[in-house]
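WARN no homologs supplied; continuing
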Amino acid sequence: MGSTTSIVLPAVPAGLPVGPGWRTDTGEAPVVFPYDGSIVAHAPVGTVAHAQAALDAGVAAVRPVGRLTSAVRRAILIDVERELATQSEQFVELLVAETGKTRSDCAVEFSRTLFTWAAAAEEVARLHGETVALDVQPAGAGLIGFWVRKPIGLVIGIAGFNAPLLLASHKIAPAIAAGCPVICKPAPATPLATLWLADIVRRAAVAHGAPPEIVQVVTGDAEVGRTLVTDPLIGAVSFTGSAEVGHRIARDAAPRKTLLELGSNTALVVDVDADVAKAADAVLRGGFYFNGQACIAVQRIIVCAAVRDAFVAALTERIGELTVGDPRDPATRVAPLIDPAATERVLAWIAEAEQAGAKVLHGGRVVDRTIEPTILLDVPETAKAWCEEVFAPVVAINSAPDLSSALDTVNRSRYGLHAAVFTRSLATAFTAIDELDVGGVVINEVPGFRSDVMPYGGVKDSGIGREGPRFAIEELTVTRMAIIRPQ
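OK structure emitted
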């Protein structure tokens, strides 16, 4: 990985970690710093042939990895976490360079990555089965029954660009904990952190007698991805990305298991009794982190009509606090999107909403290559900035006559990942938890809150399956029933 900037890149072997070594017979593509378009590095680009080689090696590794003891799997995970911890500043610098996220956001990503590896290590000892009372039926009299969990097989992990190190870790660490080899395909724009992570994992594995093929990385285009997910010998696909791509993967991978963490147009409801200042603060914190490129960032805000004016005033008064600029500057809160095409798409969505009758209360322009933090008011529900995932520093406000109407508005979306409700009423909180058709309901905090140990995932077009080490490990194992008639 040769750099043309001042970023100090790690001493990772050249090429792709495929099979027992690193394949250098690859193409090459630049990794670009989104803020100024400068080239950070030249990264390897794989082909269908590399994908097929990784599949062959991964299938061959299924039994050796599946036979690793719990102690060995746990030790590998612990060693990875420990080595990562010694490289914190270098990883943060690299994440800033390849994602263009602010330094504070990249530091949060790295901290959560460390926690994910540690949590996965703890879960290894908690993977267990149960006895089954087979003699509740006459035919089971005299039989002993129990079930255990076994690795599902080779896992394909495909990660998005917005948190490449963390998302790769949520694929790789649970797979290892479950006893599964894994092939990871990072987003084309952000492969560097994943390649470095794979090197750390492979060295830790070999140190404990495990095959290096426990993790492989293949970069490349959509055909490379399709080759990986359609192989009949894989056990599961874990994908984080857009709904459109996720749905196609589910069709292509069938009948193999798919875990899909897809997009959303996350809603935040402000009830009539809410602390309006705290709700506005939550939008500032939860709508613009990761430059708005987060599937549980605030996008839709539904305010009960009685407090609409107060909320809008509180939010617009503080929106100027979100400084725009170079993500390397610790003071920057919002920086450019991943590439110019994303910026052009979002500007078109803002223009469409405005033409349909929405009012731009703040932003809507590009400043220093960055879309200003943007507030849209009274956005028609058919406008893309409301009904689709904007994935940008843009929030849209509509009002509802009462709480019931507000919750109905949330549920009219085809997405259902997280939603938040601000209220002082315990009854309202439990009503929201009961009625909102989403994977997670957050009361009086940003909908983007995520603990890496909780079950995380969505419903409807936001996906299927759950992440979080405990839950992902369960997804990546299958029950095996044992039925014994003692002689």
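The chain has a mean pLDDT of 96.
OK
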